[in-house]
Each structure stands twice: as C-alpha cells, then as structure tokens.
Design goal:
This protein is α/β, with parallel strands linked by helices. The chain contains six helices and 13 strands. The strands form two sheets. A ten-stranded mixed sheet has the order 2-1-6-5-4-7-10-9-11-3. Strands 8-13-12 form a three-stranded mixed sheet. About 9% of the residues have low confidence.
Amino acid sequence: MQTWGIYVYTGGSTSTFSICPPCYEEPEPFVNKAVTNCPGNGSWRIGVMKMQAGLQYPQPSSLKGRTDVNSVTNWNAPLVWEGTFDPVVIDNIYRRINPRIAVVVFAVGKYTRFLKGFLETGEKYFLYGFRVTYYVFTDNEQEVPKIALGEGRKISVLTVPSAKRWQDVVLGRMKWATIAIEKQIRGEADYLFMMDIDSVFHNRFGAESLSQLSAVLHRGYYQSTKREDFPYERRPESKAYIPPDEGDYYYTAAVWGGYLEDMYKLVRYCYEQSEEDAKNNIEAVWQEESHLNKYLLYNKPTKVLSSEYLWSDYDAIKPEIKVVRISQVVKDYAKVRPNGGM
C-alpha cells in the first residue's frame, strides 16, 4: 500500500503529517488533524487601511501619474503598474494587518529543478517581511531543497502522484489544490496565490498585489489584441466557452491570487468545470487557464496586475514594462515535460 505525506520546515527542523492511504485510484492528500482555526469560512476581509503616524513618503498627486498605460479597468478596479502605488505606504498598511499568505506551486517530475530558483528569489522579493508559506506539491519530496527562510516563512511539502502528460499536471493542480485548501490551507492562510514553479523573481512583488481577487494580464495579449482574437476556448461544447464578442482581458494562469475563500471558489470552479468537460470527452484549449478566464469574465477581479507580475525570458521587455517582477525561465520543454512538446 502506497502512502503519502506532508512535510513542513522553516529552514531548520522538519515536521511530518501522516496522510490517509489511497482508497481509490488517485488518493486525496490530507492532514490527519481537524482544522481548528478557520477564520469563519470566508470572514477574512481587509479592514480599515491604517497607516502609522510619522511615516515619510512623497506627497501623492491627483493630476500626475503614468500616462503611457491605463491604470483602472472599466469596472473601476485598479490596474497595477510600476509608478501607480507607493511601496512604502502600501507595505506599511498591510504589515499592520499582518496577513498569512499561501503560495501554491507544483513541482512534478523534472520540474523539481526549478524549485531552488523560485524559492531563493521568492525569499528576496516576494512579499518580503510578510508571513508566507510555500505549499510545494511534488512527486519527489527528496528533491525539495532546503532554503534559508526569513522570519515567519516556511515550506510545506505535499506529495501527489506523478503524471504521464503535462496537461494532466496542469489539470491536476486544481484537484489537489482544492483538496489541500479544504484539508489544510484553509486553517493556515488569509490570502492564497497560485504560481508556476518555472519562474524566478527579479524585483519587488509586494502588498500592492493583494486584493479579494487579483488577476495578471498575459504578456502576449495585453497591448492591442482584440477580444475576438484572445485564445479563449471557442468550442461551445466546453464549459470554458466564451463567445467571440465577449471578453475584457486575457489573464495568465501562471500567477493569480486573492482572499483564501475567494481563491477556493475559483480553484474549485476550475476543477469542477474541467471534470464536466472530461465527462463530455473534451479538454479546454488551455486547460485551467481557459476556465479561469471564463470565471473572471463574469466574476470580475478586484485588482488587475500588469504583465510586470509575470513576464517571460523568451520575450523582449516592452517599453511600458518598467520593472519585471517575476519571469518564466527559458527551458527545453521536450526534456522537462513528461510527454514533451509545447
């Protein structure tokens, strides 16, 4: 009988939680203790935005700002670029709130090679000074590196099955993340980010990214692509279908985040919609990214992050991208994906 485990370490000691053995073909990974500190099943909400007295920062202007980009959506949500926020002010506000932030990443198969770069640079740039737990889902916990972690930051390792297709890894993320939120993460976090592990942080990724539901503009389609040309799922048979005359932006599924319970709803939605598609022998064109875009079209994000919040080392940096905060690394897909290919 095969067993599964969860390992937690904070840079030194390692603790292990036992996992229920499989009771069907794909076992559920879960912690064998009840959640006791769930914050009211969705009661977490940002409170009054209090700032400490005496904080020094430049006076904001009501007339001057970025003129080369749009900084607000047509549903009046912030569209965040460098130069549209003051990091001193926003970090001070959120540090007083002191939220717990979960980062969910999957490192299955040969993707474990990307863990070190992601985690080490995350410790330099991702919500530095905040409480962060990296939830690493992997089929080889022995390859999770020991990283020097800051105060209040830790890594939790959750074992999951291997996959024969990279598409199955992508689709499986929604299943395993749904289960892990229900069984463990819900009692340990206020915000949750889903991120791709084959990425490296290069600059500040701070509290300006936090909101009830934050989505990131895909670098390939934010400039002038018409909505009918977005790579949405266009087959009506799929649950991810979006008609050609609808759409706001095209969002990446490589970085997205929000309140824990709002993210749970979205992650579970992507999982359940994918399952419905599978029953009808169809797979959305871009797997969970297609379902993500369908959800966000009709459930608007409360904050849209520019492509600064996920660029790619394959692409030249555009003039309006003043800072690359995190970027996907160049890799040989044939070598790292179980079934190769793009």
